[in-house]
DNA sequence: CATGAATGAGAATTCATTCAT
DNA sequence: GATGAATGAATTCTCATTCAT
């Protein structure tokens, strides 16, 4: 009985977080409101504030959840690589594929960047995220190379998102190779 | 007389745009409102809507103004380079120095990324910006290398902004060299 | 032209203040809300906050207005008294009549007492009020007697308000006489 | 067993009432809410409504409790007086001391006055309180004098609460003497 | 050109209260 | 008896925008 109650409680909280990320993706930071989250989650506004004291805490928790998901997938993809060559392929996948560079994740990251530059809580979440990415790259490359690859991943994915013609995987792999030689 | 009137109008317009960018930097996209712009510009709300029909048009014009300023400085720095070696130094400067990577510009770019992903007008502004950056790099490097350098600039500056310890200029120059060999 | 505009503006402000006092009288402190004031004044909520930054400032201004009105009437009644005997009659009138002891004023004073005990702004308003009352009594009586009469006015009016059978004017005049002998 | 259960219930009920009075004192009528009471009492909101159907009944019960306490202390102080002279001293004590005129009691009385003027239930509580006060004074003084003293107690304590410099006990005793001669 | 009073929709949040457990 | 998740109405206040002057 108690277990059921706890599960129900958790699922409401998590539902709210998931919906919050959805709204952030759809509406952007400027358009993300308590109301829209409540409506989309089919919950009353009171239920949202019951679980999160204010919108800030809600967004913070949502971003933490997002980072956890993305960073895990990111690390997982790199962990599957058996050698340096496969690691290069993994990085290319991260840039071109859906693991990291899904437009959803990109959109969320822009919002997080915006918030992280102005508020401590978000900054911590972002720093943890970046640290986990570098650490995952560090499985296969020295720290300096990891930082360079991380920059490339960041830059290529952003530019690919905003350009109609994305840079080809082949071209990206060439750059990766140049940096990891 | 007409000239004087036009100048006065223009100066109010530009003041509004500058203040709008200030507010965007200070408050982020979520916190940027008509009111704050009006207050900070010491203008009545009516004056703002007199010059810009709505907040969207105002922000769009402000971003256009920002892009013009930044892209010019970016191109100028690269134009000063006399050879490939100096061009590499110029790229390092763009990443480490104040021309592009001032935190203000970064903050504005995050907001623009967020908006560009969802609305056509902003998307055009951003694409023009990216095109101008690549073209400036293309003065010294082939298009493929220009894209790679652009990605590096993007990625390194973002990570430097959000990390307490920025990547050293030396390390960055090494990566630039590797990509441009 | 300008004069007309200023008058219009002032009349809205004053209308709001008057309505706020009405709502305070009808609903008491617990029931006085922005909304009720706006509805009763037939103004949109935005108009209220346009004139008063928040409910606190509005209530403060309303109480200031009330104190000004009541204290003036109080002093005026005492000023009309030509001698000690007439002054005693005036005090009796203040307790029994409508000048001061209208139930409306009493109700407002309770709310002010409640707020004054907890917030500085209201406390100042109340202290000024009490000072003006004592000063008005001091026109005819020494300060010590003025304080005693002031206490009597306060106490008798409160008890009369809350009791079904009010104390008679004659009995009150006897007490006044006892205190002013 | 049943006894134990009943005792536990009662103690929760009384705890709620005490906390409600605390909140009323701290926050005033406008700021007294179900939630604050529940939080301060470390009880869940459901527990409060279990004991009191609604906030009104809770406040009413709380005021009844308060009146019982204060009126008993008031009467007790007067009952200790052996003669008219001691009774005058007792009244002075009630005005200057802690028995009645503690600022807490005053604060609660303002809230009760506010509520009593608008709602029947509270009005009854207040009238009973005033009757008990007058009856206690009537032990030593005729009814007319009791009413005058009661007004003096009311007025002096209110004014002392709100003024930085309270009226001296000596001065108050003089007024009491004048009224009771 | 510029103003600022006015607006009403919508923002975040709080509220008393319910009810299944 | 007690809990606490959930509710939705109501709260204060902000918002972009309008318009008469």
Architecture overview:
- The structure is a homotetramer.
- Chain A has about 180 residues and is mainly alpha-helical.
- Chain A has two domains: about 1-50, Homeodomain-like (Arc Repressor Mutant, subunit A, Orthogonal Bundle), CATH 1.10.10; about 60-180, Tetracycline Repressor, domain 2, CATH 1.10.357.
- The first copy, chain A, is about 80% helix and about 0% strand.
- Chain A contains nine helices and no strands.
- Chain A has helices at about 1-30, 35-40, 45-50, 55-80, 85-95, 105-115, 120-140, 145-160, 170-180.
- The first copy, chain A, starts with a helix and ends with a helix.
- Residues about 1-10 of chain A have low confidence and may be disordered.
- Chains in contact: A-B, C-D.
- The interface of A and B includes residues 113 and 174 of A.
- The first copy, chain A, binds a DNA duplex (21 and 21 nucleotides) through helix 1 and helix 3.
Q: What are the main properties of this structure?
A:
homotetramer, 181 residues, mainly alpha, Arc Repressor Mutant, subunit A, Tetracycline Repressor, domain 2, 2 domains, 9 helices, elongated, disordered N terminus, DNA-binding
- The second-level CATH architecture of the largest domain in chain A is Orthogonal Bundle
Query: Average pLDDT across residues of chain A?
Result: 91
Assign the CATH topology of the largest domain in chain A: Tetracycline Repressor, domain 2
Query: Assembly type of the shown chains?
Result: homotetramer
Percent range of helical residues of chain A: over 70%
CATH superfamily of the largest domain in chain A, by name, is Tetracycline Repressor, domain 2
The secondary-structure element order of chain A is HHHHHHHHH
Largest sheet of chain A: none
How far do the termini of chain A sit from each other?
59 Å
Q: State the helix count of chain A.
A: 9
What percent of residues of chain A are in strands? under 5%
Q: Main interface pair? A: A-B, 43 and 43 residues
**SSE-based structural type of chain A:** mainly alpha
How many domains of chain A? 2
